[in-house]
Structures are given as C-alpha cells and as structure tokens.
C-alpha cells in the first residue's frame, strides 16, 4: 500500500465512522443520502415542514423550493471554499483520483467557471439543437427496432441507457466502438459521486479515469489530423489556442460525457415508470403523443434524476432564521422542491397536463444551471413520443430494480412488454 493509499484509507474509515454515527442517531439527512431510497418523498416533506433549516455535523440542509432556489441563485454561495481548499467529500474524491485530475467547471467558481462553461456552450445552444433532432430520432427508432424484436425487454438496458450515450458520443465526436467503455467509466464515476466508501472503489475510479483520459488524448490527436464539427474538435482547437489547459480539457470532456448520459437515462426511465404506474396518464400520452414534452417536464418535477447538490457559503449568511458560517456546506435537496405545496398545487399528483406554477429546479438554478437541459428535454421528448406511438400497449412486466444511489435517482432495470399488463407499485 502506498502512502497516499494509506492516507486515503484512513480518510475513508473516518468518514464511514462519521456516517455510521450520524445514522445511529437517526439523522434524517444521512438516511436520505446513503444508498437507494425506494421513496424519499415523505422524508423530504418532513424536512420541508421544519420551522428552521435542518442541521447536522456536515452542514445545513435546505428542502423548500424557496430556500433551495435562493441558495442556488445567491452569489454569496459557491462550490469552492474561500480558502482555496476543496469542500469536504470533494477532497476525498479528489484524493482518490490523484493530483493530476483537476475539477470540472461544475465544481469551479467564477472566473474559471465562466471561462470554461463559455467554451462548451455553443454545442448546446438553441441554434444547434434543432440539427440534432434527426440524429436522436434515428438512434431512438434503431434501438426500439432491436428492443421490440423480443416480446419482453428491459427499458433501461435496451433503450433508455444506450440512447443518451450514443447521442452524447456523437456530439462529442467519440467513435461508436468506444461508447461501451465510456458506459463502464460512467458507472464507476456515478458511484464515486455518492462517496468513496472503499479503497477498492478508489482504485476502480483511478483506473477508469486513467483509461478515459488516455482515450480522450488519442481522440484529440485524431481530431487535429481530421477536424470535424464536434465538441472534441472545438475544445482541442481552443486548447491549442491557449484558452484552456490539457487537464481542464480532459475534465470538461469527462463532465460533458458523464453528465450527458448518467442523468438522461433516468429521465427517460423515471418518466416511463411513472407513466406506466399511472395508466390514466399513459392513456393521455398514447392518445396525444404531442404531450411527450409535458410528460418529461412533469417527471422532472415529480421524480427528478438529480436529487441533491451542495453549495459552500462564501460569507456569513442568514437563511430561514439560521446563521450559516463562512465555508459551511449547504445541502440543496432538489428532489424535495418539486413537491413543495407552497409552490405546486396537488404536488403529490402526477399529472402530465398540469400547468406548473413555477419551473422546477431539476436542472438546478443560477450560474450552474444545467448546460445540457435543452438536449435532455429533446431526447426525453423524442423517446417518450416514440414509445407512445409505437408501443401503445406497453406495460410493466416484472420487478424493477433501483440503482444503488441516493444522489442520482433512477432504475437499473425496468422489465416491460409491449402488450397488456398490470401496473406495479414503486419498489
Ligand atoms: C435529465 C437530464 C439531466 C439532468 C436532470 C441534469 C441535471 C443537472 C443539474 C442539477 C446540474 C447542476 C448541479 C448543481 O447546480 O450543482 C447540472 C449541471 C450540468 N449539466 Fe446537466 N442534467 C441533465 C442532462 C445533461 C446533459 C444531456 C448534459 C449534456 C452534456 C448535461 C451537462 C451538464 C453540465 C455541463 C453541467 C454543469 C453546468 C455548470 O456547472 O455550469 N446535463 N445538470
């Protein structure tokens, strides 16, 4: 064991003991943050109903729409500490990945955040988006042709999973032969984002990062030889013009790739699951596939793929009668905001025809608002429309399995069949 492994091992042990102790005291936030939650929404309601912010040794927890929105938009909060150190948990993740890996712009404050986000923005702007529709439709129908060759199929493994990875790989300029490898890296990374819980996971993460970065470097060389109209070519040119360093470029590619598929799979999966569990709503979509965009939007409110994020106070702040210290962590429970009765009427009802009072926070808010939101919306709309048009009798067919994660909510497995079946309850 190397010295850095020994340090990491000690850190993991301390964090595990801390988590265990908090769990033993019945800490509501820890229960919501460790492992998959079959139904976290009653616990969110309890957090929202408190007079002041919930607080534990890790920081403060915001769960109402108003407070979460405020923290996400208020420039007195950021994602880095004022002393330049990384916030807790992120430093364990950084330790696990090694010193040569830098933070992506999701984990950076201005001015670096602004500079790096700007370089990636053109690829996801409205002007480019319409051009992606034929590509997404063609991948969608190709996947459905293959999936429906069998009577029963797994909506996640056969459809919702491969769709976003194939789309984002195309946009980035990654050849199809490499997409399966990226899928594997993404899984390790997504697990690590929930916390580095073992040295084994840390090693897997390091290997995945090394392999992924080696592949990006090879692709960069290929793009210099044969430039194409893709994001990797653009970023390689920006790098060669001195606009971003090589570690920054690698971190950006990784962010775009992983954010591009680890979340959208769950939007398509959670939407389909909610629709099939509410046959009346599925019937509405089947009768009018034009409701596909609204169905995805309702799922983002009702059962969003990203359940929580975190901010750091850059100065002392008074919030909901609670004083937040400089550099204190504030956990933002995005998953709780879509069902806040102070904002949404009948928030527990899944209704794809609703006219929402406010835009949900599923894509966050403020300067880190999801860069890929228009792309995710387009993919989900095309996917749900295709399901409704081509498989009107789609039904659940077996027990779904949740992914073992609290931060990202979704299913690993969703068995379905294209003919009649009984609705199942949430596992
Ligand atoms: C349903 C699908 C998606 C959901 C629910 C989602 C959600 C989010 C959320 C909540 C954040 C902000 C986290 C924070 O404030 O701390 C975020 C940021 C981001 N997302 Fe997404 N995302 C989705 C799809 C995508 C796609 C398809 C891409 C395309 C590449 C993407 C790229 C990004 C990037 C680059 C950021 C960082 C933005 C920044 O820090 O300025 N996301 N996403």
From TrEMBL:
SUPFAM superfamilies: Cytochrome P450. Involved in the coupling of aromatic side chains of the heptapeptide of vancomycin. Pathway: Antibiotic biosynthesis; vancomycin biosynthesis. Pfam families: p450. GO terms for molecular function: cholest-4-en-3-one 26-monooxygenase activity; heme binding; iron ion binding; steroid hydroxylase activity. This is Cytochrome. It comes from the Bacteria. GO terms for biological process: cholesterol catabolic process. It comes from Amycolatopsis albispora.
């Amino acid at each position: 064991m190397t010295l850095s492994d020994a340090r990491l091992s000690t850190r993991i042990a301390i964090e595990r003991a801390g988590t265990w102790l908090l769990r033993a005291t019945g800490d509501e936030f820890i229960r919501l943050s460790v492992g998959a939650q079959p139904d976290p929404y009653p616990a969110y309601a309890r957090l929202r109903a408190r007079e002041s912010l919930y607080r534990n040794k890790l920081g403060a927890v915001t769960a109402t729409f108003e407070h979460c929105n405020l923290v996400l938009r208020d420039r007195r909060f950021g994602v880095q500490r004022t002393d330049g150190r990384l916030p807790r948990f992120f430093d364990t993740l950084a330790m696990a990945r090694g010193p040569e890996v830098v933070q992506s712009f999701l984990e950076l404050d201005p001015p670096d955040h602004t500079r790096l986000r700007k370089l990636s923005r053109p690829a996801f702007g409205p002007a480019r988006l319409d051009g992606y529709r034929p590509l997404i439709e063609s991948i969608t129908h190709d996947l459905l042709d293959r999936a429906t060759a069998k009577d029963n199929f797994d909506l996640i493994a056969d459809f919702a999973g491969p769709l976003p990875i194939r789309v984002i790989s195309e946009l980035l300029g990654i050849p199809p032969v490499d997409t399966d490898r990226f899928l594997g890296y993404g899984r390790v990374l997504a697990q690590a984002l929930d916390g580095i819980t073992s040295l084994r996971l840390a090693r897997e993460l390091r290997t995945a990062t090394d392999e992924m970065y080696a592949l990006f470097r090879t692709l960069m060389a290929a793009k210099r030889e044969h430039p194409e109209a893709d994001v990797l070519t653009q970023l390689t040119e920006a790098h060669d013009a001195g606009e971003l360093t090589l570690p920054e470029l690698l971190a950006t590619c990784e962010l775009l790739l992983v954010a591009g598929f680890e979340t959208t799979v769950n939007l398509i999966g959670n939407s389909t699951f909610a629709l099939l569990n509410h046959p009346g709503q599925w019937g509405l979509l089947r009768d009018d596939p034009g409701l596909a965009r609204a169905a995805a939007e309702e799922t983002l409110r009702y059962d969003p793929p990203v359940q929580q994020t975190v901010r750091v106070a850059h100065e002392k702040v008074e919030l909901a009668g609670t004083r937040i210290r400089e550099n204190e962590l504030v956990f933002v429970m995005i998953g709780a905001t879509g069902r806040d009765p102070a904002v949404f009427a009948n928030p527990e009802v899944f209704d794809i025809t609703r006219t929402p009072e406010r835009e949900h926070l599923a894509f966050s808010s403020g300067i880190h608002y999801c860069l890929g939101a228009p792309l995710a919306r387009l993919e989900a709309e095309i996917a749900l429309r295709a399901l409704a048009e081509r498989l009107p009798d789609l039904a659940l067919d077996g027990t779904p399995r949740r992914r073992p994660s609290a931060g990202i909510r979704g299913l690993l497995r969703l068995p379905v069949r294209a003919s009649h079946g009984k609705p199942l309850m949430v596992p």
